[in-house]
From TrEMBL:
<dbReference type="InterPro" id="IPR035931">
    <property type="entry name" value="YlxR-like_sf"/>
</dbReference>
<dbReference type="InterPro" id="IPR037465">
    <property type="entry name" value="YlxR"/>
</dbReference>
<dbReference type="InterPro" id="IPR007393">
    <property type="entry name" value="YlxR_dom"/>
</dbReference>
<feature type="domain" description="YlxR">
    <location>
        <begin position="13"/>
        <end position="72"/>
    </location>
</feature>
<protein>
    <recommendedName>
        <fullName>YlxR domain-containing protein</fullName>
    </recommendedName>
</protein>
<dbReference type="Pfam" id="PF04296">
    <property type="entry name" value="YlxR"/>
</dbReference>
Length: 80
């Protein structure tokens, strides 16, 4: 059940800023390919970062997404 006490129809995703759950089609998906790229069709390969349409989430999203990328290990290989 969602906050509106209605059953979800289809896949559910979580906004990475406010942590609320929404039907996938209500969220904007972005991927990381050197920069945050909106994936309007939601078909691009790669890790998806989802954001709801709330003003606070829109403002905080770039910082949260960058923090999520930090520590993923890309380009940080030990050369021994």
């Amino acid at each position: 059940m969602n906050p509106r006490n209605e059953p979800y129809a289809g896949p559910v995703r979580t906004c990475m800023v406010c942590r609320r759950r929404f039907p996938k089609h209500e969220l904007t998906r972005h991927i990381w390919n050197g920069d945050l790229t909106p994936d309007v069709a939601q078909i691009l390969p790669g890790r998806g970062y989802y954001r709801c349409a709330g003003e606070a989430c829109t403002a905080k999203f770039p910082k949260r997404a960058a923090a999520a990328r930090k520590g993923k290990g890309e380009g940080k290989r030990d050369e021994a």
